[in-house]
Amino acid sequence: MKHNTREHLHNILSQNELRRYSRQIIIPYISKKGQKKIKDACVLIAGVGGLGSISAYYLAAAGIGYIRLVDKDFVGEENLNRQIIYWTKDIGKRKVYSAKKKLQELNPYCTVDAIQGEIMDDTILKFCSDCHIIVDATDNIKTRRVLNRASLTLGIPYIFGGVDGFNGMTTTFVPGETPCFECIFSGLSGNKKTIGVIGPIPGIIASIQALEAIKLILGMECTLKGRLFFFSGIDMKIKEIGIEKNLDCPACRSSKRAKAYEEKND
C-alpha cells in the first residue's frame, strides 16, 4: 500500500513529460517548478464513482505522481450515465482495478495504487499513508465523517464534493485554517439513500475538486478555503457561501492541530 516517496521527490522531468505537460507548464502559475511539485504529490481519492472517476482522470492527466484509489464497489450498468472512466465492457469488474488500468494507460508517468476496501475509522489512516490531500468522492455522510476525522488527525486538506440531481457543491477544508466538515454539516443524518444524478453535474464538481487539489499542491492561495461553492444546473446559477468554524464542533475542537491554531491566534 505504501509507496516510496523518494521515487517521486525531486525527479527530473523527462523530455516526454515536458512535451506531455507543455500546455500547462507554459502557465506562469505552474512552470517546470510547479510541474515537479505536481509530480511529487500523492493524492487519495476516496471513492471512484461519479466524482472520483472524473477527478482521478484529470489529476492523472495533469501529472500527479501518485494516486491512491479506494472503493469497495463493482461497476454496475446504472453507473455508466456519469462514471465516465468505466465502459460497458467493465460491468461487473471491481471499480478500483478498472479505473487503475485506464489511468495508467492514460499516463504511464502516474503511479496508481488501487485498494478494494471500505473506508472506516480502522482503515482510513492506512489508506491515507503518505498522502498529501484527500479528495472526497463518496456518497454518504458516515464515510465523509471518517474522512474528516482522518484529515484532522493527519493535518492534511480534505476536498469535499457532493451532488444531487442538477445540483452540486464543493469546498476545501484545511485543518487549523478553516472549518471542518462537521462544523458545516453536523446536522445531517447518516442515512444513505439513492439519489438521482445527471452526468454533467459530477463532471463540473469533480473538475473543480481536481483544480483545487492542483492549486493546493502548487501553494496557490486562491482556493475554496472558507467558501462553499454551490452550482445549480437548473438555472445555471452559482452561489458562494462563506463558512466559519463552529467553536463547539466536537470534531475539530478536539483536534490537536486545531487547538494549536486557536492558541496561536488568541
What does this 3D model show about the protein?
- Strands 3-2-1-4-5-6-7-8 form an 8-stranded mixed beta sheet, with helices on both faces.
- The chain has 10 helices and 8 strands.
- The chain has one domain: NAD(P)-binding Rossmann-like Domain (Rossmann fold, 3-Layer(aba) Sandwich).
- It has helices spanning 15-20, 22-25, 31-40, 52-62, 95-106, 124-127, 141-154, 181-185, 200-218, 256-264; strands at 42-46, 66-71, 111-116, 133-136, 158-164, 167-173, 227-232, 237-242.
- The chain is of the alpha/beta class.
- It is globular.
- The model is unreliable at 1-9 (pLDDT under 50).
Topology:
Layout: H1 15-20, H2 22-25, H3 31-40, E1 42-46, H4 52-62, E2 66-71, H5 95-106, E3 111-116, H6 124-127, E4 133-136, H7 141-154, E5 158-164, E6 167-173, H8 181-185, H9 200-218, E7 227-232, E8 237-242, H10 256-264
Parallel strand pairs: 1-2, 1-4, 2-3, 4-5
Antiparallel strand pairs: 5-6, 6-7, 7-8
Quick tags:
globular; disordered N terminus; 266 residues; 10 helices; Rossmann fold; 8 strands; eight-stranded mixed beta sheet; alpha/beta
Order of helices and strands: HHHEHEHEHEHEEHHEEH
Distance between the amino and carboxyl termini: 40 Å
Name the shape in a single word.
globular
Overall structural domain count: 1
Class based on secondary structure composition and strand pairing: alpha/beta
Give the count of helical stretches: 10
Q: Give the oligomeric state of the chains in this entry, treating copies of one chain as homo and distinct chains as hetero.
A: single chain
Q: How would you state the average pLDDT, rounded?
A: 92
Query: Which bin fits the share of residues in helices?
Result: 25-40%
CATH C-level label? Alpha Beta
Q: Please name the CATH architecture.
A: 3-Layer(aba) Sandwich
